[in-house]
Amino acid sequence: MTEKSKKTDEEIFYPEGIDIKVAGEDFNIKPFVLKNRLVVLRIVGEVIKDYNTQQKDIKELNQGDLISLLITAAGGRLVDVYVVVLGKEKAWLEDNITIKDEFKILKAMSEVNDISFLLQQAKALTARAKI
């Protein structure tokens, strides 16, 4: 590996995007811009609120468990995250995205965005709102 080809810590920990194929189409999952991050924070905050009412401690979950939690606890709200992440219409997503695709999307999304930081933000917002 040459000096020029070495990746910086920033490039390793915060990649510019990840290419995935879901429902037969290619997508590049990019880091959230502020507008999209706020939408995702709202949805994740709702999931955390629902999860907390079940008396479970979200801090004890690893990344795989968090992805599973999002899929099971978010219900229909998770498709709104996919709309943001993939830029596709909700109807198309509902007709084409499989559970395998969901894991690809969520894994890529968590790799290009600091998901633990987003979860901390969502928890803080949820606590402030006393939800």
Write a structural description.
With 131 residues, this protein is mainly α. Helix 2 (34-53) runs antiparallel to helix 4. The chain has helices spanning 9-13, 34-53, 63-74, 78-86, 90-96, 99-112, 115-128; strands at 18-22, 25-29. 62% of the residues lie in helices and 8% in strands. Strands 1-2 form a two-stranded antiparallel ribbon. It has one domain (20-116). It is globular, with a radius of gyration of 16 Å. It is built from seven helices and two strands. The mean pLDDT is 76.
Please supply descriptive tags for the structure shown above.
62% helix, 131 residues, mainly alpha
Helix content range: 55-70%
Shape: globular
Annotation field: number of helices? 7
Low-confidence stretches: none
Q: Indicate the structural class.
A: mainly alpha
In the residues, how many domains can be counted? 1
Main sheet? 2 strands, antiparallel
Provide the spatial order of strands within the biggest beta sheet. Answer: 1-2
Can you give the mean pLDDT?
76
The rounded distance between the terminal residues' Cα atoms is: 51 Å
Number of strands: 2
Radius of gyration, CA atoms, in whole angstroms: 16 Å
What is the chain-wise order of helices and strands?
HEEHHHHHH
Into which percentage range does the β-strand content fall?
A: 5-15%
